[in-house]
Design goal:
Length: 375
């Protein structure tokens, strides 16, 4: 999409002029209107701005930098008419668990969302704890600043909502949605993202990352929040992409969990280098990473937990009619007399990212907040 009508700017075409226009939605300009930013006289910063400005109302002096969402509230944070694309989202929440804020995005008047995921998981932060993520598609920066760079085109309408699923407490949310208004070529598809969690995974079951996709498109990324319930190595499982009529066996089959996330040998340099201490090694790169390893503390934090991402930006997985993705939860028995695989029953959550044509098949219903809760 690079270079078409103002979509997909990159270092190679930043100097190229376009008829596209740039707009931005935030609590200081809720509808992104031209020349209407910073005009609020009421908002979460009103008391701090009192006395400032020509009339003492604080207008123009950070009166509305954020929103307050009450318990159970669903708020539309962006609504855009016309043709264009979301190009960047920055958002940071406070006073709420990240799995209690649900992000949904609807394209061109569709009844069902094309994006539905807890805010933290969408931004590669499934464990409600900060870890630096430095990638092309998602960046997480100090402190708890969520940034998304997936391009999200639309032809007639875009609506972005947040739901605060906490039944008892409010949330404070700062955000900015940067977008362009421009023509969208006919061959451009719509961005989708779907969250799933299984806890615990039933014995001998494969974990389903994505299923039920109907239409034409390309798969572009995976985030996984993986909590282990066994000792020992947990990442022997293969990821499998069933596409365009595949049933029993996939067209694409990986060789191991850490291999899919572009690591090797248990994410542990000590496995092959005797000079290194054996330990999981966090890493974050443009296309793949293991940015988060939460280790037991010997008291109440009893499980090891991992956060991993893999972006198919240079190697999208294209499908013409349907797509299903699974991954095995497979460990390794370390006893010398019993060296074989160990099917695991772990706590696994994921967000799948892809582009496809509309309409899309409705997503499975999001589970109760207690089922999604990180403890």
């Amino acid at each position: 999409m690079a270079g078409f009508s103002g979509l997909g700017m990159h270092m190679g075409n930043l100097a190229r002029l376009s008829n596209a226009v740039t707009r931005s939605i935030s609590p200081e300009n809720f509808d992104g209107a031209k020349g209407k930013g910073g005009m609020a006289t009421e908002g979460t910063g009103a008391s701090c701005a009192r006395g400032l400005g020509a009339d003492g109302s604080g207008r123009g002096w950070k009166v509305s930098p954020s929103i307050r969402m009450e318990a159970g509230e669903i708020r539309t944070i962006a609504e855009i008419e016309g043709s264009g694309a979301i190009q960047q989202i920055w958002i940071t929440p406070a006073n709420v668990r990240w799995r209690d804020l649900i992000l949904r995005i609807y394209w061109d008047g569709q009844e069902n969302p094309s994006v539905e995921a807890p805010l933290g998981d969408f931004f590669c932060s499934g464990w409600n704890q900060y870890a630096q993520v430095s990638s092309l598609a998602v960046c997480v920066n100090p402190g708890r600043a969520f940034n998304c760079y997936w391009e999200m085109p639309f032809r007639r309408h875009c609506r972005i909502t947040l739901e605060n699923r906490d039944p008892d407490d409010f949330a404070i949310v700062y955000y900015q949605v940067n977008y362009t208004l421009t023509e969208v070529p006919e061959d451009v598809a719509y961005f989708h993202a779907q969250f799933r969690r299984t806890n615990p995974l039933p014995f001998m079951d494969d974990y389903t990352i994505l299923d039920g996709v109907q239409g034409r498109g390309q798969y572009v990324g995976t985030y996984m929040a993986w909590g282990t319930n066994n000792s020992g190595w947990w990442g022997e499982g293969e990821i499998k992409f069933f596409m365009d009529g595949d049933r029993d066996y996939p067209t694409i089959c990986g060789t191991g969990t850490e291999d899919y996330f572009c690591g090797a040998y248990n994410f542990d340099g000590g496995v092959i280098d005797p000079t290194m201490v054996s330990a999981y090694r966090e890493y974050t790169t443009a296309y793949a990473g293991l940015p988060q390893v939460l280790r037991p503390d010997g008291v109440y934090r009893s499980q090891q937990r991992f956060g991993m991402y893999r972006w198919h930006i240079t190697d999208p997985i294209r499908f013409n009619s349907d797509l299903r993705i699974t991954i095995q939860a497979l460990g390794w028995r370390t006893e010398k007399k019993d060296r074989r695989y160990l099917p695991l029953q772990d706590d696994i959550a994921s967000v799948a990212f892809w582009y496809q044509t509309l309409p899309h098949a409705p997503f499975p219903a999001l589970a109760h907040r207690d089922y999604l809760e990180v403890i």
